Amino acid sequence: MTGRAICLLSGGLDSTTCLGIARDEGRECYCLSFDYGQRHTAELAAAARVAESLGAIEHRIVRFDLREFGGSALTSDLDVPKDRAAAQMATGIPVTYVPARNTIFLSFALAYAEVRKASEIFIGVNAIDYSGYPDCRPEFIQAFENMARLATKASVEGNGRITIRTPLIAMSKADIVRRACELGLDLALTSTCYDPDPEGRPCERCDACLLRCKGFQEAGIPDPLVT
Amino acid sequence: MTGRAICLLSGGLDSTTCLGIARDEGRECYCLSFDYGQRHTAELAAAARVAESLGAIEHRIVRFDLREFGGSALTSDLDVPKDRAAAQMATGIPVTYVPARNTIFLSFALAYAEVRKASEIFIGVNAIDYSGYPDCRPEFIQAFENMARLATKASVEGNGRITIRTPLIAMSKADIVRRACELGLDLALTSTCYDPDPEGRPCERCDACLLRCKGFQEAGIPDPLVT
């Protein structure tokens, strides 16, 4: 155990809280973000602010273009759904699902972990208040970890073992908001919206905004991004 | 089963033979290559030639930069080893190992498979005459397949099941050369070398060239790339 952790950081509420937890556990955090052709690049600016404010050792951004494949409202011209009720969000997988996104993100994190000799990867997935994405489920994360332990040089040489840490997986959005506040995180630095305006302000109507809003409301804490 | 397959294609002997096998099985082949900052970009030109000659439906190239992380002679300024004996190659993992490369490649293939509704991914990994890479082992491939079956929208909706096909995994290089010739593949189109000259001609001294040379010699077939 080196104490080093790779922290996937989108710059949203969940990944920021996840990074805060890794730091609180004393980890040296190497943050990793992705510019994958998403329409909400405001989150990359948020990720950079958050990484700096939480004392990350490094913050790397890997660029690739998932628009090449299409298939998601987040990376194509499909409309981002707005004003959906919780019951609608709970039914089926929305068009904002990006094919194999967490698999790709975790694979790059695995490469980064191998190079930096980190033994943990933190990812802020959540299986409670989420949008029905298959690659946020605990069984997916466990299967990825099993694969990762066979994928690396360290796995052959027997001197390394990767653990995928998902501290938020069983938390509600309200729990996450409360935990972030306990940790003293500045949530004004984050960006959650799938479809922000050109200045990066949230639309307050997409699934991500609505889930975030519900979390703050249930926690009884005002969202610093909503005025 | 749609008959559609994603075929990872580096443009070398192995991936070309693998694509030839997929085509021979009647698959509609969607080829996928990567420009990841490798020093041997000649292979991308080879991949395009091979995909066209074998009637691929599409050939996509995903670009990302693994030099961001470093850690491999293929993506940094470390020297590519030359003139190593087979016994040396069999010992340990060489500096040409790229951290988590096959994990990343297969993850993009999974995204591509999901968008194109392909049920198979063909990858030309080989666990016999190879360079000791952890992510070429059968147990790694099996673990990736297990993970992939939990990763996608189809896995939640129950209408899709991804299979990772590795037709070369138990073949020697000589077997691969023979199979390629049986299939009538034009191996003059391929590029195998880790360190080709500016015109794309092989160095004939790196591990990849030496393994290829051994394969052609043992098969008793002249290599069209070597004059």
Which helices and strands appear, and what pairs or packs with what?
The structure is a homodimer of 227-residue chains.
Chain A: E1 4-8, H1 13-24, E2 28-35, H2 42-53, E3 58-63, H3 86-89, H4 101-116, E4 120-122, H5 138-151, H6 153-157, E5 163-165, H7 173-182, H8 207-219
Parallel strand pairs in A: 1-2, 1-4, 2-3, 4-5
Helix pairs in contact in A: 1-7, 7-8
Keywords for this entry:
five-stranded parallel β-sheet, alpha/beta, 5 strands
Write up this protein.
The structure is a homodimer of 227-residue chains. Chain A has helices at residues 13-24, 42-53, 86-89, 101-116, 138-151, 153-157, 173-182, 207-219; strands at 4-8, 28-35, 58-63, 120-122, 163-165. Chain A has 227 residues and is of the alpha/beta class. Chain A has a single domain (4-219), classed as HUPs (Rossmann fold), CATH 3.40.50. A 5-stranded parallel β-sheet of chain A has the order 3-2-1-4-5, sandwiched between helices. In chain A, β1 (4-8), α1 and β2 (28-35) form a beta-alpha-beta unit. The longest helix of chain A is centred in the middle third of the chain and has 16 residues, at 101-116. Chain A is globular and about 55 Å long. The model of chain A has no long low-confidence stretch (mean pLDDT 86). Chains A and B meet through β3, α4, α5 and α6 of A and β3, α4, α5 and α6 of B.
